[in-house]
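TICKET #2291
ISSUE: user wants both folds in one file
ATTACHMENT 1:
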Amino acid sequence: RVFGYEAREIQGRDMAELIIPARYRARHRAGLAHHLATGDTSVLGKRIEVEGMCKDGRELPLEFTITRLSTSGSPLFTAFIRDLTETRKAQEAQRESEAKFKLLFEKSSDAILLLDREGFIECNAAAVEMIRCRSEEELLRLHPSAISPPFQPDGRPSYEKANEMIALALATGSHCFEWTHRRADGEDFPCDILLTGIRLGNRQLLYAVLRDITERKRAESELRD
C-alpha cells in the first residue's frame, strides 16, 4: 500500500530496485555487503531515515528499522518501514509556526516577555527599550520583582499581587490588568499587562505583553481637572 505494489509484484525481486531511488542504491548495496562480509551490526535495530520510491516514481521519506533473523546460513532480514510523509508535514508546519511567532515576537512594537516561575526566559527589543536596559541579556538577568516598585498604587505588595495575577492567568488562560512597573533607572510608570498561560513542551510558561499607558493616564488626569 505504501509503495503502490501488489504482493505478487514484489515477491522475489530486489528491494533496492523497487523502493530505493537509483542515486542511493549503490550505497545501500555497499552497506549490505559490508554487513555480510564483516558481521557489523551497527545499523541493525536502529531507526534510519531514508528516501524511498513508489511504483509511480514518486519519492517519500521513510523510517527503516532492520533486524537480522538468522545468524547462520542464508541471511534473513526483517525491515520495518514507516511512511514519514505526514510526520514531515507536521514538522514543517511547526517550523513555519515557530518562525512566524519569532518574527511577531521580535518585531512587535509592544513589549513582550516570556517567563516561568523562576523568572524571565525571553524578551524582545521593545521590552528592553521600555525597561531602559542596555541589552536583552541585562533584562533577562533581572528578577521580575526588580522591575516593579515594592508596592502597587492600591497599597498591596507587588510580589504578593503579582503572584495573584499569575495564578489568575494560569487558571483562566489569560488575564489583563493595570500595573506599575519600574525602569532600570528607577522611574515608575503605569502599563497595561496581558498575561497568557502557554505550554511549551512540558513547561508551563507565561506570555506577557506590556503597553506603556503613561500618556493615557496623563490625558485622563487632565480630563478630570
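ATTACHMENT 2:
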Amino acid sequence: LRYRPGAEYKAHYDYFDPADPGTPSILRRGGQRIATLVMYLHEPEGGGGTYFPEAGLAVLPRRGHALFFSYPDATPASKSLHGGAPVVAGEKWIAVKWLRQGRFD
C-alpha cells in the first residue's frame, strides 16, 4: 500500500465481523483472521503512524520495521481497533500479511 500526503486509513478491525452475512462463506476458506503483520517499507517524512485508539498506543512507521498484533477473538474486546494516521509529508509504503486460523484456499 502506498500513502501520499493526506492519505490515511480510518480505524477498523482486521477480523471478519461475525455479524456480517457474508462471513460464513469467507471463513470456509481458511478460517477467521487472528493476527496482522504490518511491514514498513518506506517511512514518510511526517505522520503516517499506526494507532490503536482503544489501547492508547501509536507506532511510528520506520523503514525496515514491522508491527505484529493478534486478536484471537473476533470481538472489540480484543482492543485491535487500529488505523493509519494521515501522512503529513513524504510517502508511506507498507505491506500487510493477515494470519488465519487455517490454510487459505
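RESOLUTION: both attachments delivered.
EXTRA DETAIL ON ATTACHMENT 2: The mean pLDDT is 96.
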